[in-house]
Protein 1
Amino acid sequence: MGVARLRQWWADLLASFWLRPAVMTVAAIALAQVLVRAEGWDELPDGLDDWIYAGGAAGARDVLGVLASATIGVAGTTFSITVAALTLASSQMGPRLLRNFTRDPGNQYALGALVATFAYSLVALRSVHDAEEGAFVPQLAVSVGLLLGFACIGVLIWFLHHVAASISVDRVVALVHHDMTAALELACRDTPKEPPEAVAEPQNTAPLTAPGSGYLRVLDDSSLADWAAEHDAVLHLEVRPGGFVFPGSVVGHVTPTRLQEAAQAEIERVMVLGQARSVEQDLEYAVRQLVEIALRALSPGINDPFTAIGVLDRLGASLAGLAGRNLPSGRLRREDRLRLVRPATDYGGLADAMFHMLRQAGETQPSVMIRLLEVLGAVAAVESDPGRNAVLARHAALARDTALRGTEDAAARAAILERHARFGAR
């Protein structure tokens, strides 16, 4: 299993809502078994006797029974609250953001604490015996159960605060921006600057077809380049992470043609297809999740330009963070020979994904368009690459023209022209 595929598998596993609660439940069951078996092994340290349960079997059954019923009831309530929060977030900020809520460790740990305490109480309860059965009361296990019960009260209070905070649009924007920043950091890590060069059209090649259908979630291009170097081959791919792959479609070519069968097997090994896009390698999808929040905020039904302005600030911060850093070119070399060529998101494509749809949606919102021009100017102030500054200037001109077309207010038009003039003076 390649590194990229392993990273995607681990990210999907952590995003699942069941993993952490399941691990906590198993740990609670094991703890209950250990405490029941440890009953009476050693004398407790001085001072702890007053904190240990000292009642009989009937009292222990009552305590553990109440603890089990209460925690499983509260667990159902927390699940209902989570579903309600997901529904609200989906309607206001977009269904593609649901993954950010389900993978939230706080929600998983809160549910896990309640379910684990329920499982602990059941396991401890089964060990309680009356005198007729050979009296046995796991006093240490009952005491720890009480402690877990009090801890669950704290978890419930924290969970209510956490859910209320997690559906705040500012917090959601910050979380999505964090994901986008992490994706950009991963893409730019140790990426060398390569001079622009034309890649010749492949000659005498054999086609490589898709192993299935779906969105390309992971492409282990490093392994592909290593394979090509080992077999003295050159691979030209026509897909990139985030693109939809149709069954049987041509996804690339290999040179020489005699390696078609082996290259096809390698393609099937390193390509991971799925029903949804993923932010791990798909930079544009990470951007579009943030843009979607702003687009919904600018819709007539919501009309919240302040959220759109907040999204623009985050997008500008991400672009400014790319100053002096290199995006992957899609060309991988081994021993100074080109071995793999594939499409890649460049600076212009990233800026287009950030600003095109927002500019179109904000045409009649002068405050949004003014802020867009200000953000573009702030990014240009820290960017020294002439090619990237040309991209920013193009978007500034488009924003100016769109904003002037969308408003007749004299003060707004003057502010728009002033911001664009300030951009050009940099």
Protein 2
Amino acid sequence: MKRHSLFFSFLFVLVFTAQQSIAQEQKTDSELITELISKKRDFNKKFGYGYRIQLYNGFEVEARKMQAKFRIEFPDIKTYLTYSQPEWKIQIGLYKSELEADRILNELGLKKKFGAGVIVVPLGK
């Protein structure tokens, strides 16, 4: 009888320590969430998902004039001059959501200053 209780005690300790060592190797939920958020941010940086405000779409000379005018008025906001045949585009900012881009567009009064052609455009979709 004493041998059986000693055997079961040993077996219990063995199973308990094995379970504890396995549990220590597994990541916690917060670590997994942090890791997923980091991967999502890296993906977004690489592929450029988000929204920008497009000020102009057309000829190169006009696009460069529009870019210079914008840089004088708003030096803190980054501008992007791109060429997609057959047109040049001036886009500004990088916003996570369309709502955020619309809010900036309205707060800065960009339609009044740069014309009715100012729109919010999605990136990478």
Protein 3
Amino acid sequence: MADFHQSGSVATLHNLRTLDPAAMARELETIAVTRKIVLILPSLYSELEGEALPAILDELSKVRFISRIIIGLDRADAQQYRDAKAFFARLPQEHMVLWNDGPRLTAIDERLKALNLSPQEPGKGRNVWFCMGYALAQGDSAVIALHDCDILTYDAALLARLVYPVANPNFPYQLCKGFYPRIADGKLNGRVSRLLVSPMLLALKKVIGDHDYLDYLRGFRYPLAGEFAMRTGILPDMRIPSDWGLEIGVLSEAWRNLSPKAVCQAEISDRYDHKHQPVSEDDKTTGLSRMSIDICKALYRKLAADGTVFTPNLFRSLKATYYRTALDMIEIYAHDAAMNGLSVDRHREEATVELFASNIVEAGQIFLENPMETPFIPNWSRVYSADPDLMRDMAAAIREDNAEFG
């Protein structure tokens, strides 16, 4: 993916393979002396038993520019939390494990519920939000980075390239989004990005017309990447979704809060593979089917907030336009795969597009029936305004958990 292409809407920082990754890491170590860099790892307990996370810890153990690692642990009982503490103990960096299901953080969540500020549903968004709150409560970081715990192709250079654009004080960027090619086992992956988001953005442009927000999203090479880094100063005012629209939601918040010149994307890996979600054709509450509905709703909410009027007829036109656009893109992906010795299952891809087309309309119906739905979690500035002691008490609860089970 080494090229010079710029979309014009978002700065794209390429990997031209001319710099030794160790040199970038050394520069980051110098920067980190005065600009503390913190890493957030949202994790399910089950990922501790998987193939990816132990290898990720092997790589993180080599990293010297990260000052603190915050691990958000979901779906764990007391013994599993104790096991997680032991699992992460080999990290040389200062680290803290948030027991999201433990009694102390549950009590913090009850305080938030009493204020109508609690995340509405469990999941990655909620996990990340609590980790961000803890990072803000520490008050000593300049940069926050985030990546998933199921990356099978992880190396330390990925993290360095992710944080460098926002850690370097001579760069103007407040947020950096990672991108990479999604290939593994001789085939193209990244189904939701390729088969839903890309053709959906093109279809929206055809149906509702030119829109700066759509051009902004189209500028990202991989908008659904779970890896991003940001300067800590933007965190207090950032609202993130609690559903599967997290990645689109973060980009939308950056669009709302920042100048486009303050946002960039960086090529962070030559290859990337992680745990694959099932399509879940028969259950729209899980898998890629649920993800497609949440992403569509995230797009509709943002466009409606910017003045777009949605009607049932518009959603029907959008479905037809998307479907034709997506089928054309499947053919292009098949040609691209063939040029690189990769394979694409045309039948499977077209069946997935048919499911996504149906979900575009279903997401529209949900949006029209409940236009006041607000899956965004309140930002931490609002939490602090409502309960100035909560962040401090949350940090104390996390320390007490770690001390008791340490």
Protein 4
Amino acid sequence: MNNKLIAVLLSVIIASGLIYTHPAFAHNFGGDASATWLAKMAEIKTEIGLVAKHVGDKNAINYYSDALGEYWNVNDTREMGERNTLLQTEIPSTINATLSDALAGNQNAVNIDVSKLNGYLDESIPVRVDASKLDNSTVQALAVVFVQKEALEKYGIALNTTTNLNDMSQMNMSGGSMSNGMSMSSTIVNQNAYENSIGLATAAQSMFNDLATKYPGQSDANAKISTAFTKLVQDLNNKADVNTIMTDVHVHIHPVMISAYNIQGIDGTTTNTVPAVPEFPLPALLAVVSIAGVVVTTRFRSRLGF
């Protein structure tokens, strides 16, 4: 085979690798995305449960309607349709029905809506998340972290603080609760976001309790995390200052979860959270091959005067 022909073949491989797509890989969830879906289901259940507490309260329902929009959007509806057309229709329609019935002040209808929606959300989990990921403790622990992260975000909104509670680097390491063990009470400026933060933290705590039950071998770590979650929820209820809340999470919860459940990159400003269950789909592999092909082709072209 002459050099020109080799160069042409490599060019074809490169082009194929760069544009390759395959339906089987289009929406298969890796570790991160699997954890994200598990978290999303818990978050929607939390928001819809809080809607049921505020039937007839237009202000609160509008708040939770916006919150639900963060966790379920048109992309979720479209992607769900790739796996299950019934859930593609029923999940968003039941969310909308719940909000409409809540605005109308119909508590009985809302209770029925919530029960139906929770069933659909549970049904979506094995549809969207591979069995191997559902059985992976790292994925499940990461889902807990994602929900807890939302709780901190909502608490920051409740306080209208400029501090990013999910950024460990913004902790006050020299004063406040870190040094004297005392917590100052904070002023809540957004009651709905405050209630939301407690609801999400409680959901994360419940998710962790389920995880601890499944993996009793981590008894020492589970006990420490459980105690820290109890304190986090208590401190949120007591309107603790941001440093106290961040200490609960970044000092007492995250380090133990990282060690016990092999989670990477969940603190500080790192946004590329990757559990220790990586996937290497074919398009990524072809991209690597393509890069190598570019190098080889360039060398051939340089020799042949292309």
